[in-house]
Prior knowledge:
By secondary structure, this protein is of the alpha+beta class. It contains 2 helices and 5 strands.
Amino acid sequence: xxxxxxxxxxxxxxxxxxxxxxxxxxxxxxxxxxxxxxxxxxxxxxxxxxxxxxxxxxxxxxxxxxxxxxxxxxxxxxxxxxxxxxxxxxxxxxxxxxxxxx
Length: 102
């Protein structure tokens, strides 16, 4: 039983680290829009994105493992893009926090 738990913990840690990696890549893309982003650790890590030009423009983006890639999801459940489309995803997040009009 202990071995099974260790395997699950190892799987969970690996998945979390993969999610972090993809969220870090998204944060790098978001820097082009002069946005601030911070990793928030918890049961599911998320990237808290802030528009420094606004006091209330904040969005938490989570990363979920899918069959063939990772998906980025807004805090309200809307799919923003995949790990294979970081530029498009960053643009959508920038739009959500008011950093772009298109």
